[in-house]
Amino acid sequence: MTADELAAPELDVAGIAPEPVTIAGLTRGGCALLLFVSQECPTSALALRNLGPLCAGWQAAGLSCTAVFEDPLEIALRVARVSGWTGTVVSQPAPYQASQDYGLQSVPTAFLVDSAGRILRRVTGWDQPAMAELIETAAGRGAADLARPEARHPLRKPGCQSKAALDPEIAAAMAAASDTDELEEMFERGWTDGLPVIPPTTERVEAMLGRGFDGDASLGEVPPAMGEATLGRVAVCAVLAGCRPEYFPVVVAAARAALDPAFNLHGQAVTTQPAGQLIVVSGPVRHAIGLNSGMGALGPGNRANLTIGRALRLLVELTGGGMPGALDRSTLGHMGKVGFCVAEDEEVSPWEPLHVERGFGADQSVVTLIGCDAPLSISDHRSRTPEDLAWTLAWAAASQWSTNWWPLREPSVFVICPEHAAMFREHGWTKQRLREFMFESVHKPAGELRRGETTPQVHAADPGDEVPKWASPESIVLLVAGGEAGRYSAVLGPCTGMGFQIVSREVESRWPATT
Amino acid sequence: MAGDYVSPFDERVRQAESLAPRPVSLAGLRVTLLDIRKNRGAEFLDRIETLLQAAGATTARTGKEIFSKPAALSLIDQTTAVADAVVEALAD
Amino acid sequence: MPAVGIATTPFADEAVEQARLLGMPGCRMLYIPHPVQLLTEAELAALADAVFPSVIAALTEPGRR
Description:
The structure holds 3 protein chains of 3 kinds.
Chain A: H1 3-6, H2 23-26, E1 31-37, H3 42-51, H4 55-60, E2 63-69, H5 73-83, E3 88-91, H6 97-101, E4 106-107, E5 109-113, E6 119-124, E7 126-127, H7 128-140, E8 156-157, E9 160-161, H8 168-175, H9 182-189, H10 202-209, E10 218-222, E11 227-230, H11 231-241, H12 248-258, H13 265-270, E12 276-282, H14 285-288, H15 303-319, E13 341-343, H16 354-357, E14 366-379, H17 386-396, E15 412-416, H18 418-426, H19 431-441, E16 443-445, H20 456-460, E17 466-468, E18 476-480, E19 488-494, E20 503-506
Helix pairs in contact in A: 10-11, 11-12, 11-15, 12-15, 17-19
Chain B: E1 30-35, H1 41-54, E2 58-63, H2 73-82, E3 85-91
Parallel strand pairs in B: 1-2, 1-3
Chain C: E1 3-8, H1 12-21, E2 29-32, H2 41-60
Parallel strand pairs in C: 1-2
């Protein structure tokens, strides 16, 4: 080989560092490791996982480590993060000039480049012995102690075809929809939340819209990608979720509520908080479509509850681009983000239902949206007085958001089970009385709250000042649902700092609604 | 039936805007520091502000209404009216 | 107008995707190490000092493509 054939071509790539990527820059400290990879290639993932943890040490010793992806930059960064690659990440756009310049047939391919810009070694696929030799060569070029990749199974694994090496016709044929498994097709298109979906054929979408809903009517843009929520797309999400057409009016009402600027869906969709969107359904529609407000109300088992909640989430994740792990940064998330829809048990409740409290008529069907986190269970099988029970329920929420984050301005949503609700009914407690008793039960001196995450108010108060858990009794939202037996209520914690309001919308059987 | 699917995605692609032209130096220019209102951002911008002033820029401070909502269009309009450049921070 | 945003490194992929979705794929972002919430005043100032030359460059260097 001549010296020219060994010269490492400049890379037409982009990363997140502001400076352009040059071979001279990469070899400034000695040598450079270039690892060409691709998201769809399992062997690339293996190489990234095996070499990733070693990068930090290598870079410190003068061997720069750059993963060159044949994928968009945001995909490259996510794959690198998930694989544990601690080196630099760069992305090449189609038609993958860098891969072509380096003569790639397959990924992963690793190159060792020296400070004169010459390619010293090339390793194709995952090949631990060859990678160890490559590192040996780098070490021989003056880099201090370089850790060798561990010799563990599998020592070798073939890679996948580089996108640059793909014949465009073959690539097009490979990308074409497959007849054979439409459920896998949905996964391949990224039209899911991780679970199988119902393929949204034109017939299914039209059936979902029925005669009452205009597919071209728009409910507004869904953040954060600002995809337009035409009723057609809302119907697609309802089909994907597994809704029956009779659920669609509830889905539309939930979407309208979620897109109200006062709800701040945008903040909830991208936050690191565990934010999910709870849909509370009130009024006659609950029975009309078979929503569950009884046993297992907060869990699985009922198609209407699960699919309505999921339809809204798919609208946010797909049309809105708020997909967990991508634009949705929720650190842990929670299962309510798969979908969270509950019907209140208005018949068992001793009180006026949520929608009546919020100004609707009892016979109106209404959805109410609340941003919240996962349920915290509250067992109370022993209290014999409403005071004891109310105290127990209230103190369960004391650590919501954070142990010492008092007072909480945002809502705590209590779901009171029928047996607990019966206690309050027997003693004639109104909702307001219960709410105020709970509010007054939970307070501590500021001095006891000054540890870890706490509020400016706690810091500003005198140590002896009593600080309540909630800023006002109105932060306490009360619903009734659950099975007739078992004394387990629950409380859902808030999203904070969202400036969001609880939003309600009447369920309409047509949209746009006729005047 | 196979392949005849309706997409949940809005397929419109926004026209990519090009980068605004850059001044050769910040000396004598007005730079607004825009705080997105996350905790510690103000302190961070305090330091950047000091450094910008030392580099000869005139500085102003502004911020979003709340960290969890995008900046209001009125804020963007106001800022572009009074500044030659913007530094926005700190997203964590 | 010339602008630069500063975020911590774990948010790079989100910034890249969101910029593209908003039609501003070339928007200039700088990344500092994460986390910042628990840093001392001096540590936070040091991060600002370290990124400052890149702030100047982001606001004054012409686009490359």
